[in-house]
Amino acid sequence: MARRSGVSARMLRHYDSLGLVRPTGRSGTGYREYSDDDIRRIFHIESLRSLGLSLREVGRALDDPDFTPSGLVDDLIQQTLDRIADETELLTRLRRIGAAGPAGWDDVLQIIALLQALNSDSAGRRQRAVLSSAPGDRMPVEALVEAALSEADPNVAGALRWALARSGGEGLALLARGLEAPEAEVRKRAVQAIAAIGDDAADALLHDALANADIAVRRHAALALGPRGVADTVPTLIDMVVAEVNDVEAADALSALAADPATADRIAAGLITHLDTHAADASARRRLTQAFAGIPGEAASRTLAELARDEDRGVALTAAYIIRLRDAGNEGGR
Predict the structure, then answer these.
(1) Domain spans, the chain
(2) 26 sits in which H/E element
(3) What pLDDT score does 331 carry?
(4) Which of 7, 86, 140, 153 has the most C-beta neighbours closer than 10 Å?
(5) Which three-class secondary structure state does DSSP give residue 283?
(6) In this predicted structure, what is the pLDDT of residue 113?
(7) Is-contact 164 144, C-beta < 8 A?
(8) What's the whole-model pTM score?
(9) Where along the sequence do coiled-coil regions lie (predicted)?
């Protein structure tokens, strides 16, 4: 019977002891004798066991006339999904450890400790785990990117961006995917992390991000690239001044860009255009006037002289103050 069914003789005896399959009879020498019904029952048992049922559940399924399979099958589905989730999590953890290239078990243990800390509910523990890494530590970059894109605590997020910057840009490809994430917060975190890396490859990604459909991504990219002399950031930076979104930082970035005379003229032209466009918005015009403070050149000087006579007192006073500062600076230079 064991040869015919593929069920070991030991398991057949176990089924007998549990009352799952009782052989129809015994031979004269004491061997169990199985009928066709017994054989069918054995195959039924094996089929149900293949679904993950325990032997006790198999016995109920075969012998209890009131037993209904739907509830049990639903439980088995959920148990299987739970196992898959656990195994998938383990597989991800193992892949991340492998990708970090541990040289020994100390590295493995350090990576495991970091991965566990990144999943902690304590923001302080997450931050300490990231900041405690030393130069040369094996870092699970994929896990750091995932954490950086999901971290809501600003202090922990800053630590994660610092760690990614130290990783030498290994996570740039993963961060680039974050720029196209459906969630606005993830896109914002991705561009902030890329900006913190600050190498040529990161700057290239940020330059592409200046054309991103998400205005927040464009603005963060502009704030990062403006001080680095990327003139393509000028339109976005001026729009930020008008919209009063990080307008002080945007004006500072415009001042840095204005060190190049050609870019200074471009900035002045852009500011003048927006002054005309937003003629009825006194608040926006004041911010635009303030932005002229760091812009050299004749066009900026002429515009400030006109603004000093503006009918809006706030605009006029701001322009007059900037003119005095520029005159004092010119006197000091001479």
Answers:
(1) 2-67, 100-228, 239-334
(2) strand 25-26
(3) 56
(4) 140
(5) helix
(6) 87
(7) yes
(8) 0.71
(9) none
Q: Which of 212, 311, 299, 211 is nearest to 263 (CA)?
A: 299
Considering just the CA atoms, what is the radius of gyration of the chain in Å?
35
Q: What is the DSSP string of 165-225?
A: HHTTSTTHHHHHHHTT-SSHHHHHHHHHHHHHH-SHHHHHHHHHHTT-S-HHHHHHHHHHH
Helix, strand, or coil (residue 25): strand
Beta strands in 186-313, from DSSP E residues, in sequence order: none
* Alpha carbon 101 to its chain's center: 22
Provide block-wise average pLDDT over 10 residues at a time, the chain (334 residues): 87 90 83 87 89 87 81 85 91 85 85 89 93 80 93 94 86 92 94 91 94 94 94 96 95 95 94 90 93 93 94 93 84 53
| Three-class SS state of 182 | coil
Asked if 247 and 283 count as a contact pair (C-beta separation under 8 A), the reply is no
What's the CATH number for 2-67?
A: 1.10.1660.10
Task: Please give the structure tokens belonging to residue 165.
Answer: 């910057």
Residues belonging to the chain: 334
